[in-house]
Amino acid sequence: MNYKWVLWGLCLSIGLAGCGGSQPAEIKDERLTVGRVQSEIKVGMPASQVVEILGSPNIVTTDEKRREVWMYDKVSTDRVDTASSSYGTLIILGKNSRDASSSQRQRTLTIIIKYDDDKKVRDLAYNYTQF
To answer: What confidence score (pLDDT) does residue 73 get?
Structure first.
């Protein structure tokens, strides 16, 4: 058996394995969005249906007439770190490089839903920021 060819094949395999690239990770949107509120929450809708769509509120309080007010207050920070590396091998010469980057996004969404005496939506407001 010729060990020279086995050694050469092993070096070539290691060199090619290190040349793979990487794809940047994606930031996925959460379930609670402005679009969802705009398209699915309507005046006159019962509270039970709002819970099915948006889930449970963060804060439940009452107004001056003792009618329920629900608040959904969401803050999220998404950070994506990406790194790519490559390594090329020759029997005499080697090169190693590594690149890293990161991105960060912060979002806030506040939704206020006011109910009437029959626990149906009478008014809604929202505020969305992204930076």
So the answer is: 93
Return the closest-CA partner of residue 126 out of 29, 36, 30, 28.
Answer: 36
Which residue type, as a one-letter code, is found at position 11?
Answer: C
Beta strands in the chain (DSSP E): 59-62, 68-89, 94-115, 121-130
Whose structure tokens read 């979002």?
107
Closest C-alpha to 128, from 34, 41, 55, 32: 34
| Phi, psi values for residue 111, rounded to 5° | -120, 130
What's the pLDDT score for residue 9? 62
Spans of the chain below 70 pLDDT: 1-30, 84-99
Q: Which residue's entry shows tokens 């009437």?
A: 116
The vertex-41 CA angle with 34 and 54, nearest 5°, equals 70
Query: What's the pTM value of the predicted model, to 2 decimals?
Result: 0.59
